[in-house]
Amino acid sequence: MSTLLAAVDDDQCAEPVLRTSYALASLIGAEVRVLHVCEPPAAGLPPALAELDAKVEVTHGPAVDAIVGAASGVDVVAVALGTRGAPEGPQPAGHTVLGVMARIDKPVAVVPPEARPLANPMRLLVPLEDGATLSEPMLRLVALARDGQLEIVVAHVHARETVPAFSDHAPHATIAWDRQFLARHVGPPHQQITLQRRLGVPAEEICALADSVRADLVVLTWSQDLSPGHAEVVIETLSHSGVSTLLLPTAEHP
Fold first, then answer.
1. Structural domain boundaries, residue 101
2. Which of 25, 35, 133, 218 is the most buried (most CB within 10 A)?
């Protein structure tokens, strides 16, 4: 059976990671395997993890290497882990999550400690650029939305120079543009798939929109390139969002 690997640590993210893992596993028909990495080795489970309603597997060694190794099994279809240990406001994602998400060629759910339980059906916020091509995992999410198992809010953030000239004064033209954008990038209109357009800085607008539409997950496609000048929207979203982020690697990753 397919497995979703939930990597938990002895911090406030453990319970949200576990909740998110079970919700996603139910959606994709997988079972959850819970992993805790001790670095250095320790005797027994930390108290916070011993209280989890799950069997926790313990392994030892560098956290990134251990999680990546556990995720390499052919049965593992996705990974979930926490972005940081405590809900202390905006802060960069930790080195463990950055190291893991850059090395795993599978969907990775990054869960902040303040993440609320996922709704049923889930509402996904999916930012798309004009000209974007949907990946296979994204196409599967779209199919789930059309089957009524998900709600997808597509987000398109305009820079000032890309805002359609009619946006402020031609409602019918705006509606037509929205429909054309969805048809071009997602497919025929569907009540479970809607479009929200914003003007501004992408990561800021994505985080604000995730709050305003009560999204359960932000879904971002990325190239797994963390070199300077790359993945800025991904890093900023992980650093500032109180909503879990599902990262889908593209086929073009290194």
1. 3-111
2. 218
Is 116 inside a domain boundary?
no
CA separation for the pair 178, 195 (Å, rounded): 7
On the CB side of 196, CA atoms within 13 Å amount to 19
Structure tokens at 166: 């009619």
Average pLDDT value for the chain: 89
114-132 CB burial, b ≥16 within 10 A, e <16? bbeebeebbbbbbbbeeee
pLDDT in tens, 14-49: 999 999 999 999 999 999 999 999 877 676 788 879
Per-residue pLDDT at 254: 41
Q: For residue 88, what pLDDT is reported?
A: 62
Q: Which residues of the chain have pLDDT under 70?
A: 41, 43, 85-91, 160-172, 251-254
Sheet holding 150-158, edge to edge: 56-60, 31-38, 3-7, 76-82, 108-111, 244-249, 217-222, 122-127, 150-158, 193-199
Q: How many CA atoms lie within 13 A of 13 on its CB side?
A: 26
Question: Residue ranges of the alpha helices (H) in 29-127?
Answer: 47-50, 63-71, 95-103
Domain count, the chain: 2
Query: Which tokens sit at 224?
Result: 């797994």
Q: Which residue in this structure is represented by tokens 């994505």?
A: 206
